[in-house]
Amino acid sequence: MLQPIETSYEDALASETLLISASRAVTLKLANQREAAIPGEPVLLRGAERFSRDMALAVADPALDLAHPMKGPFKALPHDDWADQARAALDLARIAGILPAFMVAPEGSEPPVTLTLADARAYADPANLIIASRARLPVEAFEQAEIIAFRSPADTREHVALVIGQRRSDSAPLVRLHSECLTGDVLGSLKCDCGPQLDAALHAMADEARRGGWGVLLYMRQEGRGIGLVNKLRAYALQDQGHDTVDANTRLGLPDEARDFPTAARILALLRVPSIRLMTNNPAKVTALESEGVTVTERVPHALPDNPHNARYLATKRDRAGHLLP
Fold this sequence. Notes:
Elements: E1 2-4, E2 14-20, H1 22-27, E3 43-52, H2 53-60, E4 74-77, H3 83-96, E5 101-104, H4 117-124, E6 130-136, E7 145-152, E8 155-164, E9 174-179, H5 182-186, H6 194-210, E10 215-220, H7 223-226, H8 229-240, H9 245-252, H10 261-270, E11 275-279, H11 283-291, E12 295-300, H12 311-321
Parallel strand pairs: 9-10, 9-11, 11-12
Antiparallel strand pairs: 1-5, 2-3, 2-5, 3-4, 6-7, 7-8, 8-10
Helix pairs in contact: 8-9
C-alpha cells in the first residue's frame, strides 16, 4: 500500500519506508549509497527512525530544504518485486500534480484502494481520446476559426484544437503544440514566454490563412510541461532561490519534460492531419511527434524577444534543453 505524502492529512501516520524519485534521491545526496537501486528508477528509503508525516514531507518537499537542511541518514532498500508498481505510482503522482513521494504501508491510514498497472496504463492510453464537441469560435486573430474539444472517459483534462482557415488536403497546416500555462496565457506572467508565443502563433496562422493556407493550434492541458500548476509554482519558488528551471524540477523529483506527445499525435489523427509544419524552437519536439507517426515537413522557428524576468529561463532552454534560440 502506498500513501501519497502530500495528500496525507493524518498526523498519526507513520511508516518504516518512503518511496521517492531517483532525481530527488540525487538531490538528497543518496546517489553514492544506492546499491539497492537502479539509476533513474524510484528509490525506497529507510531512515534511522520511523517516518512521521511531517518527517516524510521534509524529505519529499524541496521547499523545506532550507528549514530542514539535515536529512538522514537513509538506506536504499531493494524493491525488485514491485518495481513496476513503484514506477506507475510516481507517474500517477505527476499526472495528479502532487509531489512524487509516498509513505509505504503506513500505520493509521484509511483502507487502501486497489489500482492495477492495467488501470494506470488505460488512464494514459491516448486511444481513448475522442472528439467531444466542436463549434465556430471567432478569435481576435481570425474570425473564421473552429474550436474542437477532446476528452477521454477517465480523464477530466479537456484538450482543444483551434482550426484557423479553410482545411486543405493538399497542404500541411502550420501547427503549434502549446501546453497550458495559466500564469503566462491568462495572467500575463513575464517569467516565461508562453503568452507571447500563443498570441504570435495565432497571428501567424491567421496570416497563413489569408494567404490560402491554414493552421491548427493544439492547446494541451499539461500545465508546467506536464507537472501541474502547484508543482510549477513550487519550481518558481526554487528558481527564486537561484536554481534554474531544470534544476528546480530535479529538486522536486520531477522530469523537466513530461509533455504528452502521444495524445497530441492522437488529436492530429482525429483531425485527419497526417503531416504538419511545426512551429517550435525545440528539435526534440519534432523528434517526439515523428516518433508517434506524425510527419513534420518543416520546423518553423518561433522565437520571441526576452525580457528581464525570463532571460535566464530562455537561456536555460537554449543551453540545457537544446532549443534553437539566439
